[in-house]
Amino acid sequence: MCFFEFILSDNFFSECEQINPLDNILTNDGPQFSIDGHKYIEALRHSHLSIYEVQSVHQNKFTAKDLLQPDKDEITLWKPTELRVRQWETIGMRDLQLPAIDIGCCGAYRFERSTALDLCKRIPNELKRNAKLKNPKNPDFFTDVIIIHAWLEYIFTRLHDPKIVVAGTKEELTFITDSYQTSDPEALSRQLSKKLELTAVDTEDEHSPLAKEWMWFQSVDESENTLITGRRILAHFNLVDNILEVSSLTASRANSARELLKDIPEHLLKFSSRSSQKGFPQNSQKRYPGFGQPACSTPGVQLSDEERQEVILQFKKSYFAKWLDQPLPALNGKTPRHAATLKTYRQRVIDLLKTMEENDQRSVEQGLAPFDFSEMWKELGLR
Fold it and tell me: How many other C-beta atoms lie within 10 A of the C-beta of residue 97?
């Protein structure tokens, strides 16, 4: 629908004349339309794209604010059944200005908030440069092209360069396995079991000198503001015959594990090779049960759907309560509570809250319990 609207509504140029397909459609010789259909085509002919922020969503309609022209009044648009929008979502779309008929918005170019806000800064600057050219392009058409080009770049970047990152460090998830050869597996087992950093997991006595499998755990501090509680796995050590394999989820963890083994004599343990794979291999859980999963203080507990929803909701309440006083890189190290009192940071806090609300709505669509952000807005003095 986006490309259909673009092709029909925007101007294309031949060598000597301006061409728009709708000029022919709207003539007496064109296709026959109903009165409402003709109004839609005519409105489409004169429409142009802008960046909108969804303000509220109702059953059949939604209201939106033009971010490129913030002084304009909010608009109300009919929402087709197949178009799912969320409050605070940022979308490139056309206002056809047809309140009398049930047609308002069809094509929607969805952007992440940060991308949309960058566009709102970029487009006015591009228009100023365009105006200084000897033969400037039509400003409305120029804006349409910028939005569509940014949208194509955005979706193709997401399609072809997906990155999964570790919550705590934001490092790209890369499954790395270092292989070592040992001339004496029993002596190596004793050496590894003496290391205080490692916990044996394949024997009843975790200090057994005959252990063949170890985990390197790290405690997770609540101040880290991550979804993981208790402890995380830094590396998994597995000794099979004369081969020791050390597996980690990031390059820094793999390098730390390798550093941990440096004090073992080379005649006993010799590095062989390193393999890596982006993302998490499908067979990794089969090879190392539980590896890569968040450690939990109460493993093995089975919850009903209602209990699970309540646990998630309580976690959200605890997480967002701490978030208010958590220094954030997005706020240059300031807490949201402090930043909300500063004129230069207030809008940044608003944008962060809107992003969190939109993400929470996505989780609700997946069947999770919703979180009420209204108290956070009030506590920060933003409503």
Answer: 12
Enclosing domain of residue 320? 305-379
Q: Say whether both 6 and 120 belong to one domain.
A: yes
**Do 276 and 310 share a domain, yes or no?**
no
| Whether residues 18 and 153 fall in one domain | yes
- For residues 278 and 195, is the Cβ–Cβ distance under 8 A? no
CB atoms within 10 A of CB 276: 12
Q: CA–CA distance from 106 to each of 4, 64, 67, 79, 154 (Å)? A: 10, 14, 19, 8, 20
Last residue of a domain, one of 258, 287, 316: 287
Alpha helices for 132-261 (secondary structure H)? 139-160, 185-194, 251-260
Element (H, E) at 247: strand 243-248
Note whether residue 295 is domain-resident: no
* Domain assignment of residue 23, yes or no: yes
The string of DSSP codes covering 31-52 is ----HHHHHHHHHHHT--EEEE
Residue 147, Cβ density class (10 Å: 0-12 exposed, 13-18 middle, ≥19 buried): buried
pTM to 2 decimals? 0.55
In a domain, 165, yes or no: no
Assigned token pair, 336? 């949201």
> In whole angstroms, what is the distance from residue 342 CA to residue 332 CA?
13
CA distance 53 to 111: 10
- Tell me: the pLDDT tens digits for 266-319? 889 999 999 888 755 554 444 444 444 443 444 444 567 777 777 778 878 888
277 found inside a domain:
yes
- 35 and 116: one domain? yes
Reduced to 3 DSSP states, what percent helix, strand and coil does the chain have, rounded to the nearest 5? 40, 20, 40
Q: Which of 287, 320, 354 is the last residue of a domain?
A: 287
- pLDDT per position as a tens digit, 176-192: 999 999 999 999 998 99
Q: Cα angle vertex 256, ends 261, 206, to 5°?
A: 60
For the record, the structure tokens of 221 come out as 């501090």
Q: Which of 296, 321, 314 is nearest to 380 (CA)?
A: 321
